[in-house]
Amino acid sequence: MPDLAEAHAFFTEVLGAEYMYRLGPFKHDDDWMSRQLNVDDRAVMEQLRFYRLGGQAIFEVFQYAAPVQADAPPRNSDVGGHHVAIYVDDLDAAIEALHANGLTVLGEPVASSSASAGQRWIYFLSPWGMQFELVSYPGGKAFDHHPEDFA
Question: Cα dist. 16→8, 41, 77 in Å?
Answer without folding.
Answer: 10, 35, 28
